[in-house]
């Protein structure tokens, strides 16, 4: 909204004492407002200098002096604390340094207000210091930075003021020096979570285990040295609904997809069993034969957006080959959102909404009665009517004896539907609890990597 991507529904946007409104991101950019969302928009096979000026070449004129470009790029890199040769290919830099290069680009653009959505997601802890130093330098240069992040440690180190949001509403704004205890912060974040009716489902006895994962670890589909899931162990029982809770960067969906015929990851380790028997399925077809079902809006193909912004889709194997050749950035998180034909039981030749695909898929699994069904964000983006229908189908699956693994971004939905919840933080399961006994604040504390006490 601040950067012109969404219209202002109510209230006023005041910039430098004047009420402003933007018809689109171009108008916002002209006013010095820029936004960075998700992985950095960089090109790994280009030089660091070219990436600094990527997208703003026309402002430098048609005749470009290469020595001047390198000199100016080096000066901009110095302003974000990077001492690197600007002639290097961007792919030679560390992930944190690549994101700092994009901050140097914002200085080159003359950005006055930068909105940045959790740039620390996907970074290893040793990369944090590079990006934190760059953000501090950018702010010290006079640029105002609004940082959306779930990392409380980063907020304490970087921010001057903090605004806490819960369920889309402002709870409190404070000077960071007055940021209260972790317990108070958890209370603030969970304050917007409504109490939900659980329905008439009886507590389960947790007998009849049908699925178990032991020390399950998963590595990134492009970078086989980058571990995404670290030693996850959990179990599902007949007729039980178990939820994965987690924020962006928790890799809850990646964990769920890796269970279904290795639909995610370059390699895995650990053990999966169904009814006590080892599961060795390496394809979705083998997973279905073993008694697993899946409903997801995640495709097994990746969006590259290489050709002038036109979405270009490749398979996981092709993605890995392109990374080895240096054509794409192995540190970037590539989008996998889209329909999954075949597994989802989609009607051919028709355009369906994600909710309609999920409803059709769940109806299919109800008829086939698999032992376990994995549901990845089944109600995300659905209307209230469609979401209600999807939840009713989930309850019918469980009532028929199918164990359901539910990945959801709604704690309210998790409390309303599931019997137990595993909370994830940075690829690790950090807590397990019964939803009949847990408090929403306990789940919030776990997914934030904090203690509720």
* Morphology call: globular
In the CATH hierarchy, the architecture of the largest domain is 3-Layer(aba) Sandwich
Q: In which range does the helix fraction lie?
A: 25-40%
Stretches with pLDDT under 50, minimum 5 residues: 300-312, 337-349
Topology:
Elements: E1 13-15, E2 18-20, H1 25-30, E3 33-37, H2 48-52, H3 66-79, H4 95-109, E4 113-117, H5 125-140, E5 144-148, H6 152-158, E6 161-166, E7 169-175, H7 182-190, E8 209-219, E9 227-237, E10 241-245, H8 252-258, E11 267-274, E12 277-278, H9 284-289, E13 292-295, E14 298-303, E15 313-314, H10 316-325, E16 335-337, H11 354-368, E17 372-376, H12 384-399, E18 403-407, H13 411-417, E19 420-425, E20 428-434, H14 440-447
Parallel strand pairs: 3-4, 4-5, 10-18, 10-19, 13-17, 17-18
Antiparallel strand pairs: 1-2, 6-7, 8-9, 8-11, 11-12, 14-15, 14-16, 19-20
Helix pairs in contact: 3-4, 4-5, 7-14, 11-12
List its traits.
single chain; 453 residues; alpha/beta; Rossmann fold; 2 domains; 6-stranded mixed sheet; 4-stranded antiparallel sheet; 24% strand
Description:
The protein is α/β, with parallel strands linked by helices. It has two domains: 128 residues, Rossmann fold (3-Layer(aba) Sandwich), CATH 3.40.50.300; 198 residues, Rossmann fold, CATH 3.40.50.300. Strand 11 and strand 12 form a beta hairpin. It is globular, with a radius of gyration of 23 Å.
Concise structural overview:
The chain contains 14 helices and 20 strands. The protein has 453 residues and is an alpha/beta fold.
């Amino acid at each position: 909204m601040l950067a012109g991507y969404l219209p202002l529904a109510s209230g006023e946007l005041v910039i430098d004492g004047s009420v402003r409104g933007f018809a689109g991101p171009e108008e916002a950019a002209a006013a010095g407002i820029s936004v960075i969302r998700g992985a950095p928009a960089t090109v790994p096979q280009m030089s660091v200098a070219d990436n600094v000026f990527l997208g703003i070449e026309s402002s430098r004129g048609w005749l470009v002096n290469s020595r001047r470009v390198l000199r100016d790029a080096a000066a901009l890199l110095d302003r974000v604390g990077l001492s690197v040769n600007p002639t290097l290919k961007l792919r030679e830099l560390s992930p944190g340094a690549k994101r700092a290069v994009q901050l140097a680009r914002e200085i080159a653009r003359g950005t006055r207000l930068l909105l940045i959505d959790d740039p620390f997601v996907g970074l290893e802890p040793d990369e944090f210091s590079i990006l934190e130093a760059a953000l501090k330098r950018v702010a010290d240069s006079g640029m105002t930075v609004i940082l959306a992040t779930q990392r409380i440690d980063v907020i304490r180190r970087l921010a001057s003021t903090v605004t806490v949001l819960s369920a889309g509403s402002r709870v409190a704004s404070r000077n960071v020096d007055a940021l209260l205890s972790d317990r108070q912060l958890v209370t603030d974040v969970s304050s917007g979570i409504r109490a939900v009716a659980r329905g008439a489902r009886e507590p389960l006895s947790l007998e009849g285990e049908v699925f178990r994962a032991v020390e399950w670890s998963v590595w990134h589909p492009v970078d086989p040295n980058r571990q995404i899931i670290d030693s996850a162990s959990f179990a599902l029982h007949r007729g039980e609904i178990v939820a994965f809770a987690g924020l962006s960067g928790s890799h809850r969906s990646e964990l769920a997809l890796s269970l279904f015929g290795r639909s995610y990851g370059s390699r895995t380790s650990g053990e999966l069993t169904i009814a006590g028997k080892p599961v060795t399925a390496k394809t979705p077809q083998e997973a279905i034969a073993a008694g697993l079902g899946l409903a997801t809006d995640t495709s097994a193909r990746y969006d590259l957006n290489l050709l002038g912004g036109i979405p270009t889709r490749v398979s996981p194997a092709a993605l890995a080959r392109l990374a080895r050749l240096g054509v794409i950035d192995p540190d970037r998180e590539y989008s996998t959102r889209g329909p999954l034909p075949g597994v989802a039981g989609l009607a051919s030749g028709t355009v369906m909404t994600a909710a309609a695909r999920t409803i059709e898929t769940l109806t299919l699994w109800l008829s086939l009665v698999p032992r376990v069904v994995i549901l990845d964000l089944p109600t995300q983006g659905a209307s209230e009517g469609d979401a209600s229908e999807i939840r009713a189908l989930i309850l019918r699956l469980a009532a028929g004896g199918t164990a359901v693994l539910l990945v959801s971004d709604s704690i309210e939905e998790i409390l309303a539907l599931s019997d137990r919840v595993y909370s994830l933080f940075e690829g690790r399961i950090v807590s397990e609890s019964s939803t009949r006994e847990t408090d929403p604040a306990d789940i919030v504390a776990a997914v934030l990597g904090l203690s509720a006490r």
